[in-house]
Amino acid sequence: MERRDDEVVVVRPGDRRPGPSTPGMDRQEAFATEGTWSGFVRTDAGTVSGWHHHGEYESVIYVLTGSLRMEFGPDGSRVLEAGPGDFVYVPKGAVHREGNPTSEPADIIVMRSGTGQSTFNVDGPEHS
């Protein structure tokens, strides 16, 4: 979306652009500036994304609907689960993958702050 630095704008669902691609996730970019990225992400029922990290960006996730299951840490051995109304913080460079163990799609809002490329797909987490 073209915008001026001094202009307040709204991005409607039909205006969102495809976001950085990770297998198993539908990312839709709302805004991307020099230091932030924000968007909407849908993970289909029973889906697990590919392993990835967000480089120099730290992320805050808000779960709108469904369930978010995130694996991270050495060998992907740490797991957290979040549901509607929960916030999740992901630090810079944290390799993780997201899943939706429910029978309904999971919708989340993501806000990132940092610099550089916002998504890196990787083969897996570090080994312990």
TrEMBL record:
Domain Cupin type-2: 40-110
A Pfam family recorded for this sequence: Cupin_2
Superkingdom per UniProt: Bacteria
Region of interest: Disordered: 1-27
Biased composition, class Basic and acidic residues, residue ranges: 1-18
Protein name: Cupin domain-containing protein
Source species: Streptomyces cylindrosporus
